[in-house]
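Let us work through a complete example step by step.
Step 1: write down the sequence.
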Amino acid sequence: MSYPEPRYLGERGQVSALFRPASPEPDTGFISYVAKRENTNGEFGLYKIDMGPKAMGATEHFHRTISESFYVLSGKVRLYNGERWVTGGEGDFLYVPAGGLHAFQNDSDAPVSLLLLFTPGAPREEYFEKVAEYSQRSREELRAFRIRHDQYNTDMLDE
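Step 2: predict the structure and record it as tokens.
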């Protein structure tokens, strides 16, 4: 295996690192934006999810354009790997390539914290910020919203 082709062709390096101090509160009800696509030149999006006890996450779905990875920071989270539900604990990791079925939820009586990585970076922030609102609208509007955000939920595929 070899490294990818160089993307930086300079000789001395450049000042280009981004430091983002920790935010005291999540950006949404349960998601903190660690690194948005505009901060990573579209290479990835990194989010921290904090779920309360017995919190619903995402139902079974897949993405056509992005991979998604889960890294459990604390607690126990239920992860669907396309075949079965597994319980992930601190340090556990799940990688889901584009097209891979997956889901997650917190079935436990304790909070859960995990990192979520999308590659390449996609504009997922609007999805997280508005999915609850669209869930209160018609199924057609919810389906169109999900598709616009590369979210193909299996419960809406035949519509």
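Step 3: interpret the result. The mean pLDDT is 92.
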